[in-house]
Write a structure and sequence with these properties.
Layout (H helix, E strand, L loop, with lengths): L5 H9 L17 E7 L3 H14 L4 E4 L15 E2 L6 H15 L1 H5 L10 E5 L2 H17 L4 E4 H7 L14 E5 L3 E2 L2 H14 L3 E3 L4 E7 L2 E7 L2 E10 L5 H8 L5 E11 L9 E4 L4 E5 L5 E11 L7 H14 L8 E12 L5 E4 L5 E5 L9 H14 L11 H5 L14
Parallel strand pairs: 1-2, 1-11, 2-8, 4-13, 11-18
Antiparallel strand pairs: 3-7, 4-6, 5-6, 9-10, 10-11, 12-15, 12-16, 13-14, 14-15, 17-18
Helix pairs in contact: 2-7, 2-10, 3-10
């Protein structure tokens, strides 16, 4: 794999960019692999990468029914934070946030990580109490956050109207080392590194069945034929229930659409990420100047990847009260992603009733921020059968009533 650098860019510019090699291979599938991972989104590719980097397991295939990164990885709003309430959540999200800080160097691929900071607005007294509790929990967990008053919020975001008629800003939970990254680049960087290690990324190949022998996984049936494996990881977000049904078990989750939009590009006006859970909206400004806006999930189960007018109107109407300048902007484009939501709003990283089959799902509206930490923990779970990062996120917690309740931290799209 040729190393990317400023010198390489200058060299290829002199050659009219004729010497660049493909970032990753597109091979035909082999008859069998040590590990198959279904889903070439961020979580699936990160899992494959850390299997190779941390455990030396490189006879791996990553199978994707569409194109690499074409699901939720390419349909999110790129926010990265780790200020969760529960200890298991804070651990895996903080691991992920810390990995993001050096990911460009680790992958030799610029993921455009921007630690610009994240504010979660408190617009009711109930939210003030909740965020103070989270700030205290984060202090014990080693996560750098603090509660700030409304005047500091206004100083960080001058365009904000903190004296809104319905929901005035009373303060906010501030994580200065949170931020954003380029979603496509995260997937591309992991894919390039996986391909360099000899792993096969097989696109446009749908899994149509899961074969079992003696209670253990034997391989997958695909549109390109049967592919055998010793271990199988399923990382397919909103379609997790479909593949679980192929293997003969059910998952405690539901699939819903999550919608977002971007405005026309404008000059820089906001250099932090702002989330407003009370009105179910959040916003940041992209490197291109677009205002990236999102809200809550649809109220009904569906598999659509399109936006809808009524949902966007509801989100923007609520945000205009806090950001009046939005009323003068035009929408550039909108989209939807299919998210998988559990009852306690926490993910599932777990063994399954099928021996040597593992599942990584249930990230709901917070999947992008968790990609490196999810891949790190899931790779360890698949390689060793146990991971401290994933130990509390097993499927059995729903049967045992051992929930990891993050309904407040994850109750809004972010």
């Amino acid at each position: 794999m040729r190393k990317y650098s400023a010198f390489a860019i200058a060299r290829e510019a002199a050659r009219h960019h004729s010497g660049w090699e493909r970032a990753w291979r597109s091979p035909a599938p082999k008859p069998s692999y040590d590990v198959i991972i279904v889903g070439a989104g961020g979580h699936g590719l990160a899992s494959a990468y850390y299997l190779g980097k941390n455990f030396g397991i490189t006879n791996v295939a990553v199978i994707e029914k569409g194109w690499l990164g074409g699901g939720n990885t390419g349909r999110n709003t790129t926010i990265i934070r780790s200020n969760y309430l529960q200890d298991p959540s804070a651990a895996i999200y903080e691991k992920s946030r810390s990995l993001y800080e050096t990911l460009s160097q680790d992958l030799n691929y610029n993921i455009m990580f921007s630690p610009r900071g994240v504010i979660m607005l408190a617009q009711t007294h109930h939210e003030v109490r909740g965020y103070l509790r989270t700030a205290h929990a984060n202090a014990l967990q080693g996560v750098e956050t603090r509660f700030i008053d409304k005047h500091e919020v206004k100083k960080l975001v001058p365009i904000m109207n903190i004296e809104g008629p319905r929901y005035p800003v009373l303060g906010g939970l501030w994580q200065p080392r949170g931020g954003t990254a380029r979603h496509d680049a995260v997937a591309w960087g992991y894919a390039r590194a996986c391909s360099h290690m000899g792993m096969d990324i097989i696109q446009q190949t749908e899994v149509t069945g899961i074969k079992r022998e003696g209670g253990a996984v034997a391989g997958v049936e695909t549109t390109k034929g049967f592919i055998g494996c010793k271990k199988l990881g399923v990382v397919v977000a909103g379609h997790s229930g479909v593949l679980a049904e192929m293997a003969g078990f059910r998952l405690p989750l539901e699939s819903v659409a999550l919608q977002a939009l971007v405005s026309e590009p404008i000059k820089p006006i906001m250099d932090v990420v702002v989330m407003a859970n009370t009105v179910h909206g959040y916003m940041s400004q992209s490197d291109k100047g677009e205002m990236v806006i999102g809200g809550g999930t649809d109220s009904h189960n569906n598999y659509t990847q399109r936006g809808s007018f009524h949902h966007i109107e509801e989100t923007v109407r609520a945000l205009i009260e806090t950001f009046p300048m939005l009323s003068r902007l035009k929408m550039l484009r909108q989209w939807g992603g299919i998210v998988d939501v559990t009852g306690d709003r926490s993910p599932i990283l777990s063994k399954t009733p099928v021996e040597n089959m593992f599942i990584n799902c249930g990230w709901g509206t917070g999947g992008f921020k968790a990609i490196p930490g999810s891949g790190w923990g899931f790779a360890e779970l698949m390689a060793k059968g146990h991971s401290p990062l994933t130990a509390e996120f097993g499927m059995e917690r729903f049967r045992e009533g051992r929930f990891i309740d993050e309904s407040v931290a994850a109750g809004v799209a972010h």
